[in-house]
Amino acid sequence: MEAHKILNKRGFSVRSFGTGTHVKLPGPAPDKPNVCVFKTTYDQMYNDLLRKDKELYTQNDILHMLDRNKRIKPRPERFQDCRDLFDLILTCEERVYDQVVEDLNSREQETCQPVPVINVDIQDNHEEATLGAFLICELCQCIQHTEDMENEVDELLQEFEEKSGRAFLHTVGFY
């Protein structure tokens, strides 16, 4: 959602999604996450955690994250439930990249329109999310200025790998 916020501020048309069966937020222990359905609003999640343990969820920044999220959109959305077409799909975790690619490959091809899918691995903490969001924004700005994204994206990603020290996964899915 940090990348969503920054891209939105820079004028990009952005949507953000989860890919799991439920929304999971850190809980009081690693094996005890807070689990919600996708219809749950960020406001509801925020108030639920506030009631459960305000100190814990303030200390681990989850309340701050939910507060940011609810200012961006009302609730999380699930990628597999969306049939909209996108010019580019970015993921921030290899597991999510695999789920997106699997979903695109399992869909009935309606338009055969290609869509690049790029993964930028970002650790799930506030500092890395911010740094990763700026990297994603820079990548999107460069992609926006390519004349032929399909043929230039491999070279562009190689430059970003060298510059950032991060590995990028990339494939093309079809609608």
UniProtKB/TrEMBL annotation:
<keyword id="KW-0904">Protein phosphatase</keyword>
<comment type="similarity">
    <text>Belongs to the SSU72 phosphatase family.</text>
</comment>
<comment type="function">
    <text>Protein phosphatase that catalyzes the dephosphorylation of the C-terminal domain of RNA polymerase II. Plays a role in RNA processing and termination.</text>
</comment>
<dbReference type="GO" id="GO:0004722">
    <property type="term" value="F:protein serine/threonine phosphatase activity"/>
</dbReference>
<keyword id="KW-0378">Hydrolase</keyword>
<dbReference type="GO" id="GO:0005634">
    <property type="term" value="C:nucleus"/>
</dbReference>
<dbReference type="Pfam" id="PF04722">
    <property type="entry name" value="Ssu72"/>
</dbReference>
<dbReference type="InterPro" id="IPR006811">
    <property type="entry name" value="RNA_pol_II_suA"/>
</dbReference>
<dbReference type="GO" id="GO:0006397">
    <property type="term" value="P:mRNA processing"/>
</dbReference>
<keyword id="KW-0507">mRNA processing</keyword>
<keyword id="KW-0539">Nucleus</keyword>
<protein>
    <recommendedName>
        <fullName>RNA polymerase II subunit A C-terminal domain phosphatase SSU72</fullName>
        <ecNumber>3.1.3.16</ecNumber>
    </recommendedName>
</protein>
